[in-house]
Amino acid sequence: MMTRFESARRGAGACVLALALVACNVDEMLDVPDPDVATPTSIADKSALPTVLAGAQADIQVAYNGNVDMSVITGTGLFTDEFIWAETFPTRFEVDSRSIQTNNTTMLALFRNMQRARQSAVRAARAFTRFDPGAQGRLEALNLEGLVYIWFGENYCNGVPFSDVDDAGVQTFGKPMTNVEMFQTAIARFDSVLSLSGNAGNMATLAHLLKARASLDLNQTTQAAAEAAQVPTGFAYTQLHSENTTRQYNGTFEIVYRGRRFSVGNNEGGNGLPYRTDGAPAADGGSGARDPRVLNARTGPNPGGDALPITPFDNSTAYFAEQKYLARNVTDEIATYVEARLIEAEVSMRGGNPAWVVTVNALRSPLGLGPLVDPGTQTAREDLFFKERAYFLWLTGHRLGDLRRLVRQYGRNQANVFPNGPYFKGGSYGTDVNFPIPVEENNNPNSQGCIDRNA
């Protein structure tokens, strides 16, 4: 069972506009409507709904893994242990070293793209409610809106405000939300999908999976497991990238292979996982038995077209290129049954049920990976499970939320969870455990930045 969407579905970005030029009238020649942006007042009837939904899907794609300065995947990957900094841009150095300033322009771009994606989904849901309330597009828009609230809740500090622009173009400044309120808001959207769909169809399945994720973030383990159980094996909600326009490129491929800026981490800051050791070929210092979930290499294949080994932007960092996204048009997996099974396994593990190992091994076996054995102590179980979860969900925007849960729900010290100690390019790692709210958001009279920086 698979649901796919392509950035803009070639809809908004592929509209054909016939222009009748008015001779000698320069003002009229320059007054051209933008077919890629459907303004609120332009939604007059049902015919506009596919374009509005396509716009929301495209904005989700840009925020999640678009060809932009930073996306959810690359941002959380760099902040945690999945990527290390192999370039010279100081704004991204702050991300990798866990010391992000509120005036960081790279993080401002990510914040804006995420808020734009959320608002696009809100607008699409409102349009469907008005003109075609029974359509699948309404359910998808609600799911996408809830997904963005999850991203904010997992990755940002307490206090993010969520403003709104109504169908008349009038802006209302939002009030700050805590992470808990963000997850609760997301769940409310998924509950709406389940109610409107009669708990049937792909969008209902997606709602169950995303609700399981948000419930786990809230430490509501019983609810999380119950929702995950509704997701059948084989389900996947993905997004397609394309070479049609730069906006549709797979952003991780671009920053790794074209920009050569982010290298795969290996035991970063003492607490990071050994992605290189487990995923690189023996010739590159890997274990020799490459884990198919975290494939990476110094010596190829190299779609960037450069001489091998790949040379990083800074010409100094040991560069290991991820091999999950090997082209501009590689598909992203936003939510799949694998995550549902991992949620079930985690709940079992936390409850002392040995079935968690059976569940994880059932996911490992089709990949040719040998079975795990219960390590015997609860701390060791947690360590093993979160490594498995990190490998299965590598470079999908989950890692930061998981590290925060280790601190918040499992009682770990952040200094023993996040990369810590001396930074490999000098200085030391900071103590950030989430992204801050950009200082520009202080223009919102309701917002004064982060309420706190707690995990």
> What's the CATH architecture name?
Alpha Horseshoe
Rg: 22 Å
Provide the domain count. 1
CATH topology: Serine Threonine Protein Phosphatase 5, Tetratricopeptide repeat
What is the CATH top level name? Answer: Mainly Alpha
Question: Could you give a short description of this structure?
Answer:
With 455 residues, the protein is mainly alpha-helical. 42% of the residues lie in helices and 7% in strands.
What does this structure look like?
- The chain is mostly helical.
- It has a single domain (1-13, 47-421, 446-455), classed as Serine Threonine Protein Phosphatase 5, Tetratricopeptide repeat, CATH 1.25.40.390.
- The protein is 42% helix and 7% strand.
- It has 15 helices and eleven strands.
- It has helices spanning 26-30, 49-65, 72-79, 90-96, 105-131, 136-155, 179-197, 202-217, 221-228, 251-258, 275-279, 337-350, 355-364, 378-392, 399-408, and strands at residues 2-6, 83-85, 160-161, 164-165, 171-172, 176-177, 236-240, 262-264, 296-297, 321-322, 332-336.
- The strands form five sheets. The protein has a three-stranded mixed sheet.
- Strand 4 (164-165) and strand 5 form a beta hairpin.
- Helix 2 packs parallel to helix 6 and helix 8 runs parallel beside helix 12.
- The longest helix has 27 residues, at 105-131.
- The radius of gyration is 22 Å and the shape is globular.
